[in-house]
Structure formats: structure tokens, C-alpha cells
Design brief:
Blueprint: H1 2-29, H2 32-41, H3 46-57, H4 77-87, H5 90-98, H6 100-105, H7 107-122, H8 131-141, H9 143-150, H10 160-166, H11 170-185
Helix pairs in contact: 2-3, 2-7, 3-11, 4-5, 7-8, 8-9, 8-11
Amino acid sequence: MARYLISLSIIAAVVAVSGYFFFRDYWEHRYDELIIRHARVFNLDERIVWSLIYEETWFQGWKIGAADEVGLMQVTPTVGREWAKETGLSEFEKRAAEDPVAFLSDAEQNIQVGCWYLEKVRERYRGRPAETAMMLAAYNAGPSRVEEWTRGAEPRELSESDFVARIAIPSTKAYVTSILDRYRDTEALRPGPEPPR
């Protein structure tokens, strides 16, 4: 009887561990197709977008941040309205103005707007050695903070590690470092099957 209970316990443990890994894999990769599609539209590396979402919300699309940021990429209603206005589509403008939380809670809309904004902040730092770190810091703390942290240095010569060392807000430094580490450890995302032709 004791052997039977031990065997049953081992089987239950194996099933539980397997279930956990299957669930975690599903949870972390269920938006891969959306991430890949929108990252490519805005010429972003999908692994950096995936890593940012992991850091921001761990793929919990219903999250609302302390400063009213919404959804997977924690997009602010202001950014949502800017994006909607730039599209020139009155329906998007109307939805973003009337109910920004509902508008940005949709996973596809959130990733699209988040990628648009990420590319928008990246424009300032394109071609710099610390381009990705600066983009992430600007996404988290705002472009004015990045300007503050690069003051007195030649930004075009500032290495990524030197820039990260200059980040004066500990939570932003941890945010940037964590995303960069995860990004470098992340393999290619797994898109779903090709649609039939």
C-alpha cells in the first residue's frame, strides 16, 4: 500500500509539473502571432516587444497601472488618443476618446498602439550604441528623463552599459536591465501555422 501511495504521489507530481510548464508556455506565447505582426509593421524586433510585455504585465491584458496605463503593454490613454488621431480614422478617435480603457484592453489594439509608441520613442535614439536601452528607458520614464541621463555625454558615443549606469531611477534601471537580459535570452517567437493559400 505504501509503495502504491508513493508511486501515485510521484505520478501526480510529474503530471503537476508537466501541467505547469505546458500552461506557462501557453500563457507566455499565446500572443506571439500578434506581437510578430505588429512588431514587423513598426520595424521592431518582436523579441524586444515580447520581453517588454513580459516585464510590464506578464501577459495579463486586463492590468491597469498606477498611472492608468492599460493592457499588455501598459499604454496610457493619452498615447492611445495620439495614435487614434494619427490614423485619421474617426472611428478609432471616437473609441479612444469615449472609453480608452475598453479601447486599449483589446490585445491586438494594445500591441498595435504599444508598438507604434515604442517605435516613436526609438526614433530619437536610432543608430546610437545604447539605442535599445534608451528606447526602453524612454518608454518607461519618458524621453525627457533619457535626455537628463545623457546630459554631459556624447549620446552617439555612450555605450549601453554606460547609459544604464546613468539611469537615476532604480525602478527604471531594473526595468531596462531586466528587459534587455530577457531579450538576449529569448529565442525566436513561435508564430502559428501559415494560413492556407
